[in-house]
Every structure is written in structure tokens, then in C-alpha cells.
Amino acid sequence: MRSVRREPPLRSDPAPSRAAYRVTRLWLSPFFRFFVRVVIPLAVVIGLAGAWALNSSHRAAVIAWVDEKRGSIADRPEFVMRQMIISGAAPELSREIREKMPVKFPVSWFELDAEELRSVVLSFDAVKDATVTLDLGGAVRVEVTERVPAILWRTHGRIEMLDDTGHRVALIDRRDGRSDLPLITGDGADKAVPEALAVFGAAGPIAHRVRGLMRQGARRWDVVLDRGQVIQLPENRPVAALERVLALQDAKDILGRDIVLVDIRRPTRPTMRLGEGAVGYLEMTRAFERGLSTQ
Questions:
Q1: Measured in whole angstroms, how far is the alpha carbon of residue 168 from the centre of its chain?
Q2: Distance CA 277, CA 259 (A)
Q3: What is the pLDDT confidence band of residue 288, given thresholds at 50, 70 and 90?
Q4: Which of 46, 50, 87, 121 has the greatest number of beta carbons closer than 10 A?
Q5: Residue 273 domain-assigned?
């Protein structure tokens, strides 16, 4: 009996298939792993949520739930504002701020906008800066920095108080309401308040005689003194020019004489205009001298 020769079993090829090789190569890429692990699940979740939200009844239910939760939180006592506390403002300004504020107490903390309230406070001329905070203790707290009046500006039949930058602080009826402040007049005078204050500072030796400064042509100043005297200052370096006049005053007492105008617009050649009395006396003197010369 012949023995049957059996063929050895075929051994499987250990090499991966082409598809498995490509998938393995793709999986080694960080971008592909991120796409499979993050992007695809996120897209599925967003798609399901979008499909659910397309239903109007579902959206209405969510909105109602949010409104209910928000209302329950907003009505809690710790979120209810019941008063306004204003600091740093004069009583009259505080009253005006309270009247203009678009707030009716009690009001929920969630219905107020601190920046909007701050813009209302900053709309007042007398307010330089302001801070508005909403305290959870039940108060709207307003801290005001007021503008400090530095000068009076008479213009178009009214008097305005200005700060040292020329910003309007308030209107007043009469100058004697703030007689402690210097006075300026003329169109454009409010644009040169720092320069005007410097001129007033330089006029210290004759401050008791200074009635005010008058802006001429929106470019230079006239110093108006009592007894109708005027000092005309140049457009450039008015403080230095005024100091030159004061030096002449110390040496010659020119402002104590019958002089109505001192023109220092050309500092190298100051000129003066005599008063009527001085002119009459000068003409009489000249006539007397001519009479003597003819004898």
C-alpha cells in the first residue's frame, strides 16, 4: 500500500494589506487622529443639536426655561438695587445727577449697565471724571470728580465758569457770584485759558488794578486795568512782554501817570498813548514854550 504524500499547509503572508497599511500610515498623522477623535464627534453632536433646535417648540421651551431661571435669580434680594449713593459732588450737582439718571428704584442688578450710567454722569459740564459701581449690597455707587472753576468767561451776554483747561463748568448770573475768579472776554478766549492764567499770574504786582483780559482777534490779549488803562500784549510771549511793562512801572511808574494805553506788541519799541489831561497839558506847555521863543 502506497503512502499518500501530503502537501504542507500554506503559510499566511505576514505583510499587511494595502488598505491596512494606508490606514496605519494615516493614523500616525496627528491631524488625522485629531480629526477622528475631535472633529467628527463634535460635528455629530452639533448636527444632532441643530436638528433638535430646528423644532420651534424645543426652542420655545429652552427660552422659557432660561427666562424663568434668570427671573428667579434677578428677583433675589441680594440682586435688588434700592438706593443711589453719590460722593464727591456738591449738593446741587448731586440733585441734578439723581434727576437725570434713568433709574427707578427698586431695580434688578441685571437691568443696569454701569457704563451707560457713567456716560450720563459724564454728560454734566461740572463732572471731570466719574466711576459707577453696582454693589450687591443694594446700592448704585457714583464717585464724582468735579471740575474746579479757574476763570470766568464773559461771552454773548452770559458768564461761564471754566476750569484751567477751558472746559465749561457752569453758568452764573453775575460776576459778583464768583468775584474771586479772574475774568476774560472775547471770542476764542476759552481756547487760550492756560495762557490767560499765566498772564494773570505774571500781573501779580498790579493784580489789584487788573479788571480782566480781552481777547483780540482770537490771537492775543489786552490787559484791562482800572482808570481805563489798557496794556496791549503781543501774540507771542505775552508773559515776557507784560513783565517788561512791569519793569518800566517799577522804574518810571508809567501806570501811575495819565496814560490810557501801553502798546507792547513790539517789545523792542513800546509806545504809550497819553490821556486827554496829559495831552492838554502837553499842548499848553508847547504853546508856552513857543510863546517864549518868539519874545
A1: 12
A2: 9
A3: very low
A4: 121
A5: yes
